[in-house]
């Protein structure tokens, strides 16, 4: 089988696509892949390094003032011509888009040329690229009930995020071993994405002082940009507060910690539900269409997470909520149980089955 996979711009689009590619390669090593992305964004750096065949499209989003939008629309039309050339050369059995501007171009071109097409929506709110493609594609895969209801029911399936399969099948370590924490100590992790958050850091600086000398350890991820400043401001805290710029093995930490405090990115929530992580979620309010809050509310509605909006975040109230959960194992177990019930650990397998159905198993 020959498959074109496309994603662009952010890890939230790219890493689920790569997770599916890895799974299919394990199932059928003879499958040929071509990854179509941009010429200058994140995927153009990381995908070729992984040994995948890669083609970059010069394409921009329809943003900015009217003149800029018009220019970008012309660029998009040119990218459609480039996409059709790629399709003719590679001749795929199916084209799968995971979001981002190049995904719009290659999937739309594939639809126009009669190739089988599929899109994947990671968030509860449908992204602009997928809105453009809804009527054009053969099948749609989504991760949230809110998105499922918004897409055409006859060609949409709620199968989850491929990253859920990666973490559920991986070899996971114990957070106590990773950070040299006594095995009888409870552990919570606070992480606001890989970049961190200046707003949340300001609140956590006070909150961490209040959480020092409690009967649990805290892994606090500042984000690389803020690490040196936060490390200096928190230098008087005890060894139970671990100030970190980044966590390399987040799935292991999410699997073995007692409580996680995080943003509500699609990949993060897919991993936490697959692992059954008890969590307090602080959605980022700085994302398109406020989709993180909608992502989070789907978990909260099922009793699978506790929600704190950033505008309501303050040190005293935060520590009070944390203590409620850290001092009550039953409350944590209930969050964990309900999160696990929402998980889609077989997402890759289920999506691959749909690909085989669409292509006739070629």
Automatic annotation (TrEMBL):
Protein name as catalogued: UDP-N-acetylglucosamine--N-acetylmuramyl-(pentapeptide) pyrophosphoryl-undecaprenol N-acetylglucosamine transferase
SUPFAM superfamilies: UDP-Glycosyltransferase/glycogen phosphorylase
Broad EC category: transferase
Subcellular location: Cell membrane
Task performed by this protein: Cell wall formation. Catalyzes the transfer of a GlcNAc subunit on undecaprenyl-pyrophosphoryl-MurNAc-pentapeptide (lipid intermediate I) to form undecaprenyl-pyrophosphoryl-MurNAc-(pentapeptide)GlcNAc (lipid intermediate II).
CDD domains hit by this protein: GT28_MurG
Record's catalysed reaction(s): di-trans,octa-cis-undecaprenyl diphospho-N-acetyl-alpha-D-muramoyl-L-alanyl-D-glutamyl-meso-2,6-diaminopimeloyl-D-alanyl-D-alanine + UDP-N-acetyl-alpha-D-glucosamine = di-trans,octa-cis-undecaprenyl diphospho-[N-acetyl-alpha-D-glucosaminyl-(1->4)]-N-acetyl-alpha-D-muramoyl-L-alanyl-D-glutamyl-meso-2,6-diaminopimeloyl-D-alanyl-D-alanine + UDP + H(+)
Topological category with respect to the lipid bilayer: Peripheral membrane protein
E.C. number: 2.4.1.227
Gene name of this polypeptide: murG
Domain Glycosyltransferase family 28 N-terminal: 3-140
Organism: Catenibacterium faecis
Organismal lineage: Bacteria, Bacillati, Bacillota, Erysipelotrichia, Erysipelotrichales
NCBIfam families, alphabetized: murG
UniProt keywords, alphabetically: Cell cycle, Cell division, Cell membrane, Cell shape, Cell wall biogenesis/degradation, Glycosyltransferase, Membrane, Peptidoglycan synthesis, Transferase
Domain of life, source organism: Bacteria
A Pfam family of this chain: Glyco_transf_28
Family membership: Belongs to the glycosyltransferase 28 family. MurG subfamily.
Major localization listed first in the record, in broad terms: membrane
Residues at which UDP-N-acetyl-alpha-D-glucosamine binds: 10-12, 123, 194, 247, 292
Protein's pathway: Cell wall biogenesis; peptidoglycan biosynthesis
């Amino acid at each position: 089988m020959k498959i074109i996979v496309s994603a662009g711009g952010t890890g939230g689009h790219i890493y689920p696509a790569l997770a599916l590619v890895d799974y299919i390669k394990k199932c059928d090593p003879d499958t040929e892949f071509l990854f179509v992305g941009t010429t200058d964004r994140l995927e153009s750096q990381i995908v070729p390094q992984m040994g995948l065949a890669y083609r970059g499209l010069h394409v921009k989003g329809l943003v900015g003032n009217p003149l800029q939008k018009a220019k970008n629309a012309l660029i998009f039309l040119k990218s459609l011509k480039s996409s059709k050339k790629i399709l003719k050369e590679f001749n795929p059995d199916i084209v799968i888009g995971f979001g981002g501007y190049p995904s719009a171009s290659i999937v739309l071109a594939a639809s126009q040329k009669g190739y089988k097409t599929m899109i994947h929506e990671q968030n509860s709110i449908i992204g602009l690229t997928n809105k453009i493609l809804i009527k054009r594609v053969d099948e749609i895969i989504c991760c949230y009930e809110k998105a499922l209801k918004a897409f055409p029911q006859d060609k949409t399936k709620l199968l989850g995020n491929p990253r859920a399969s990666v973490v559920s099948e991986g070899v996971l370590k114990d957070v106590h071993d990773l950070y040299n924490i006594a095995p009888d100590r409870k552990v919570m992790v606070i992480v606001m994405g890989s970049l961190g958050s200046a707003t949340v850091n300001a609140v956590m600086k006070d909150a961490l002082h209040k959480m020092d000398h409690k009967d649990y350890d805290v892994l606090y991820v500042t984000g690389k940009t803020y690490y040196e400043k936060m490390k200096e401001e928190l230098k008087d805290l005890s060894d139970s507060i671990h100030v970190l710029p980044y966590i390399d093995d987040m799935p292991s930490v999410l699997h073995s910690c007692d409580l996680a405090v995080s943003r509500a990115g699609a990949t993060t929530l897919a991993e936490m539900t697959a692992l059954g992580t008890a969590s307090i979620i602080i959605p980022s309010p700085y994302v398109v269409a406020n989709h993180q809050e909608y992502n989070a509310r789907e978990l909260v509605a099922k009793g699978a997470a506790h929600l704190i909006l950033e505008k309501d975040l303050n040190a005293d109230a935060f520590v009070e909520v944390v203590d409620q959960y850290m001092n009550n194992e039953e409350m944590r177990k209930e969050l964990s149980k309900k999160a696990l019930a929402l998980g889609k650990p077989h997402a890759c397998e289920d999506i691959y089955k749909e690909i085989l159905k669409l292509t006739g198993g070629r």
